[in-house]
Design goal:
Number of domains: 2
Structural class: alpha+beta
CATH topology of the largest domain: Cathepsin D, subunit A, domain 1
Order of helices and strands: EEEEHEEEEEHEEEEHEE
Distance between the termini: 75 Å
Oligomer: single chain
CATH class of the largest domain: Mainly Beta
CATH architecture of the largest domain: Beta Barrel
Shape: globular
Strand content: 35-45%
CATH superfamily of the largest domain: Acid Proteases
Number of strands: 15
Largest sheet: 7 strands, mixed
Length: 210
């Protein structure tokens, strides 16, 4: 490719960086092919980056924000998993979601369960889907109990879960209830919260201490 010098009458000759002409027909053809290729490569890279961002947003929306953990360290146990002591040595901070609700991703008998922490619920209430996920068979239960929730009383059946874990907080041998009523999410109620040393609900966070 060569640069052409442009004549501008009496003003003399100026070198113009924006005036270029191909040296040959081959140069023109190469330039005409190269630009669409570069443009398409840039477009493909942009699409890939956008797809990665969308997948990250979807995964984040599905899983939700993991609860922030603030664990008080004791002498001689730094670096070890916190064990429930019952005197409030450790605390777990759960940030409020966009709707003001406190959501946690827990493990119940080794299976992931998403809970809504509900101080208006008497106990731990599992949906039919979550009950099956942790190894409970809803069809074999007797739905004779009445459980109070923030939305009123519903019929439920009792079952047992060996362990519920939220980050470093582990509670063993929890009685749970399974309901046949449609529920969008399982509830983590007062029977769980009463096993802790204390809990504190604020407008933007819930603090569990054990």
């Amino acid at each position: 490719m060569t640069r052409r010098r442009a004549d501008h009458g009496e003003r003399g000759v100026l070198d113009r960086d924006d005036l270029w002409e191909p040296e040959s027909l081959d140069d023109a053809e190469d330039a005409g092919v190269l630009w669409p290729v570069l443009r398409n490569v840039g477009l493909l890279v942009g699409i890939c980056l956008a797809a990665v961002w969308v997948l990250a947003e979807v995964a984040g929306g599905f899983m939700g924000n993991a609860p922030g953990v603030q664990q008080a360290r004791q002498q001689g146990v730094a670096g070890k998993p916190p064990a429930p002591s019952g005197n409030g040595d450790y605390e777990l901070t759960i940030p409020a979601g966009a709707n003001g609700h406190f959501l946690v991703n827990a493990m119940a008998d080794g299976r992931p369960v998403r809970f809504l922490v509900d101080t208006g619920a008497t106990g731990i209430l599992l949906t039919q889907e979550d009950a099956r996920a942790v190894g409970i068979h809803p069809a074999s239960l007797t739905y004779s109990d009445r459980i109070r929730t923030a939305n009123g009383e519903i019929a439920a059946a009792r079952a047992m879960v060996r362990q519920i874990r939220i980050a470093g907080l582990i509670v063993d041998d929890m009685e749970v209830w399974v309901t046949r009523a449609p529920m969008p999410i399982s509830l983590l109620g007062m029977t769980f919260l009463n096993r802790l040393a204390s809990y504190e609900a604020r407008s933007d966070r819930l603090i569990l201490r054990w």
